[in-house]
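Try it yourself: sequence plus adenosine-5'-diphosphate, in.
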Amino acid sequence: MTQLANEQEPILKVRNLKQYFNEGSKGEVRAIDDISFDIFKGETFGLVGESGSGKTTTGRAVMRLYQPTSGEIIFEEKDIASLKNRRDMLDFRKDIQMIFQDPYASLNPRMKVEDIIAEGLEIHGLVKTKTERKAKVADLLEQVGLNPQHATRYPHEFSGGQRQRIGIARALAVAPKMIVADEPISALDVSIQAQVVNLLEELQKDFGLTFLFIAHDLSMVKYISDRIAVMYMGKIVE
Ligand SMILES: Nc1ncnc2c1ncn2[C@@H]1O[C@H](COP(=O)(O)OP(=O)(O)O)[C@@H](O)[C@H]1O
Ligand SMILES: [Mg+2]
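Structure, out:
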């Protein structure tokens, strides 16, 4: 297969996905109301829309953090929406990882950076010894532009941009195929934003990652995305 043909293959297909909260009650929220889209291998798919339009819910639904109300989520030909078995779920969770909006809230303040990054490695049995764990964490810190000697520090000892790099290292640790980045730079100083975007682009090149990149502001998404979908009140409008 040629490189081009390979890149045209969807890694993720979402079909008629609905995600309702408090279904049937007075407080029913149709956070996602029948959306369909494809994401191709190796691309950055931008998802933009105003606050409350359903972007985060879409990212979380794709990671199968909810039981979908209806519809299909096909990841590499497998229907994720109907995954029930723990083992299958664990395999899937390794393939798709998330980077969060708030690098302050998303890192456990009581855990050392090395333990935050190694958590996934351990859950998925990717390191066998302490030495191996240490070396892998050091590699990851270096890959995201942090000093490996800072592995024993706590999150509060880092700046916002550095914390987001720790979040990125944690996501990368299990060698995922796809990353859902939910407004990964909107909480950062403008001067830091470009650095984090450049890092994500470099990592994408190095590891052939596919990104679902969520943002409320079109300008940044335009710059990094191959294709863009716009959400409005739970629907994709363009
Ligand atoms: N767990 C939940 N329970 C009830 N309503 C929710 C839940 N999560 C999100 N919502 C609602 O779904 C809608 C979409 O939210 P969200 O996906 O976070 O939007 P966005 O990320 O675009 O700002 C909002 O009205 C929000 O209040
Ligand atoms: Mg959101």
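One thing you can check immediately is this: The first helix runs from residue 3 to 7.
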